[in-house]
Design goal:
The N and C termini lie far apart (about 50 Å). The protein is built from five helices and five strands. It has helices spanning about 55-75, 90-100, 110-115, 125-130, 160-170; strands at about 10-15, 20-25, 30-35, 110, 145. Helix content is about 30%, strand content about 15%. α3 (about 110-115) packs across α4. The strands form two sheets. Strands 1-2-3 form a three-stranded antiparallel β-sheet, with helices on one face. The protein is of the alpha+beta class. The structure holds a DNA duplex.
Amino acid sequence: MTAIGKPHVQLTITTNDGQFVAAYSDKGLAGLSFPRPGSSSGAPSDTRSGSAVPPGKLNGWHELTKQALERALAGRSPGRLPPLDLGQGTEFQQAVWAALRRLSPGETASYSEIARRLERPGAARAVGAACGANPLPVLVPCHRVLAADHRLGGFSGGLDWKRALLRREGVPFR
DNA sequence: CCCTAGCGGTGCT
DNA sequence: AGCACCGCTAGGG
């Protein structure tokens, strides 16, 4: 009886940048995905069924997520967040994500700098991998991590997104 | 610009 | 245990 992942509730968020999808576990916001290029048309695919979360609580969380995303997309601090469920990550990944959350809008750090802050100098590459595994892009600001030479580095959601988010925060980059 | 070696964490066999 | 990934980095042509 291997416990496969619970059916996370998925709720869409429509923004000027397209339709995001938020995923909630019983513990809180567990995932956020960028708009899919071809999904501009029609039926929002909200899947509330099978939720272990009381509808009222879920709605409250989702309101907070929508507000936070709206603000973050505008290059501002997300403000109040719903509870975040980052429990799927390894200890190292969670440590990296926590470090990212200490970066405020407009503030950047290199992969190696994050590694150094975690007292794992030399783990820059691993930091990059952990950023790539970040389940809550934009809200957990993996886009604020740049390469050591101030170039962009990578971004799972596509470098266009990284550029846009940094630009909105007024960050200069190469 | 390119290439290379070395790096640490993760997941699959 | 081994191995092949990776949003990396420093060094050299």
